[in-house]
Design goal:
- The complex is a heterodimer of chains A (244) and B (225).
- By secondary structure, chain A is α/β, with parallel strands linked by helices.
- Chain A has nine helices and eleven strands.
- Helices cover 39% and strands 18% of the residues of chain A.
- In chain A, β2, α1 and β3 form a beta-alpha-beta unit.
- In chain A, α1 packs across α3, α3 packs parallel to α4 and α5 packs across α6.
- Chain B is an alpha/beta fold and 225 residues long.
- Chain B is 49% helix and 14% strand.
- The termini of chain B are far apart.
- The chains are: A alpha/beta (244), B alpha/beta (225).
- At the A-B interface, α2, α3, α5 and α6 of A face α4, α5, α7, α8 and α9 of B.
Chain lengths: 244, 225
């Protein structure tokens, strides 16, 4: 297994554990994206693991990209046509987005184990996961609009899919940071647990799914989560599921 | 009348009050035709009271389509309980705020009288919205239920709801450039138009195109400073 400078990857009882490893803030810089692409395309897509946990080393999941570096990687290689519309996208950006989307498209359960700050492209990576387990005190948000642009790694679409259009648009526009309670109430976080138990529950959820009959379907993740919560005797009910 | 006549002093915010007369609806369509991205930052549609639940006529359908596809942010201000056209217009808007005592009655529809409401409702609800939308048709939902379903952005709890509306508008509009607002609306208009169930590659492409364009503009702006 190749060694990376910004990512740690290990396998525990057939569960892959990918840690963003650039503490304390676990920024998703240029080196991280290059290494993440290599790991996703050359290893994870070919692996026989039963599930994948994505987490961060230390206190935070990830504070996202450094804005200046991100703009310098994207802007000079974006071509606009005479009407000011995008005519060509930077290859570096297209590759990174493909790697993020490949994680979402994996046929095995992908669970983000979140502690501390989970912001910007860090949250976009967590949104590519099929479920998000958050430790108490976590903070989630896509603040890109406050810097003058949009989330660009599937964040707006995943927000819309998970939160519905109105909430997705509100949070994309405001760039608001959400505490774990609000994130759970609107469906951004699926399970909240004490900080120290985040990774343990992520691995256990994957192991719980692995023993279910019929093979894994990410579309029914809420059902796997409900069943897992019953098994663990964790009493949690997202309010957005109460009406229908 | 919950809404007072005090004019909200926010640049680029247009207020339209939904009225249930053919003539007023035609006027509203004309006003919407003149609203363009850039000059106008947000259209607030005030929906207050009941509107006929009968089948939509052509003018009503045209109004709903105009609001749904408008290249400017739209916000439904639901200050009274509504049915029929009131509910249709509310769901067609991008964002919704509701008075705590107001309710929204979702029409009972079948294939013969659904002019796209079920699809719009399903998309508004998110990835699993199509199934949920079917179960919700015909239900009268109070503000708390609408908030739990994430169909409204917030509940306005006080008598002076204009203060709360103004705070919400400032939160989402302040400091945002015309380009940024127009791009976010364009991005979500694609999601509305194509739905969230299919076309994932196309939708991700829309986000990529708009992200790179804005990143380039922001980079140029910072380089000038």
């Amino acid at each position: 297994m190749k060694k990376y400078s910004t990512i740690e990857y290990e396998e525990l009882r057939k569960v892959g554990i990918l840690s963003i490893n650039d503490p304390p803030s676990n920024r998703t810089g240029k080196i991280f994206f290059t290494e993440f692409y290599d790991l996703a395309i050359n290893h994870l897509s070919l692996s026989d693991i039963s599930g994948l946990v994505i987490t961060g080393t230390g206190r935070h999941f990830s504070c996202g990209a450094e804005i200046g570096e991100l703009l310098a990687c994207v802007a000079p290689f974006t071509v606009l046509d005479s009407s000011g519309e995008t005519a060509a996208l930077p290859a570096w950006y297209v590759e990174n987005k493909a790697a993020f989307c490949m994680i979402h498209a994996l046929k095995i359960p992908v669970v983000a184990a979140i502690n501390g700050l989970c912001i910007g492209s860090g949250l976009e990576l967590a949104l590519c996961a099929h479920a998000r387990i958050c430790g108490k005190g976590s903070v989630l948000g896509l603040p890109e609009s406050t810097f003058g642009f949009l989330p660009g790694l599937a964040g707006t679409l995943r927000y819309a899919e998970l939160l519905g259009l109105a909430k997705a648009m509100e949070f994309t526009l405001s760039g608001e940071m959400l505490g774990v309670e609000e994130a759970f109430a609107i469906g951004l976080a699926d399970i909240t647990v004490p900080k120290a138990m985040v990774l343990e529950h992520a691995v256990k959820l994957i192991e719980h799914i692995a023993i279910q009959p019929g093979g894994y379907k990410k579309e029914i993740m809420p059902r796997y989560i409900s069943a897992y919560l019953s098994v663990c005797d964790l009493q949690q009910k997202p309010t957005h599921q109460e009406v229908v | 009348m919950v809404f007072s006549n005090r004019v909200l002093a926010m640049e680029g915010v247009v207020f339209l009050e939904l009225q249930d007369s053919e003539c007023a609806l035609k006027q509203m369509i004309k006003v919407l035709e003149k609203i363009h991205a850039g000059k106008n930052r947000c259209v607030v549609v005030i929906v207050d009271g009941c509107f006929s639940a009968a089948d939509m006529n052509d003018t009503q359908k045209m109004l709903i389509d105009s609001i749904y596809c408008l290249p400017v942010l739209t916000l439904a201000m639901i200050s009274g309980s509504c049915t029929g056209l009131g509910s249709e217009i509310s769901i067609a808007c991008d964002l919704r705020l509701i008075h705590h005592q107001a309710r929204l009655s979702l029409p009972r529809l079948d294939e013969s009288n659904d002019s796209g409401f079920k699809r719009r409702l399903g998309t508004a609800l998110g990835i699993d919205g199509e199934e949920k939308a079917g179960a919700l048709l015909g239900m009268m939902l109070d503000s708390e239920a609408l908030l739990r379903l994430r169909l409204v952005n917030g509940i306005l709890k006080f008598d002076d709801i204009q203060v709360e509306l103004e705070a919400f508008l400032r939160k989402i509009l302040n400091g945002k450039s015309e380009d940024l607002l127009a791009s976010i609306v364009e991005c979500f208009n694609h999601y509305k138009k194509l739905g969230l169930q299919n076309n994932r590659t196309v939708l991700l492409g829309v986000e990529s195109r708009l992200f790179c364009r804005l990143a380039k503009l922001e980079f140029q702006k910072r380089s000038c400073i």
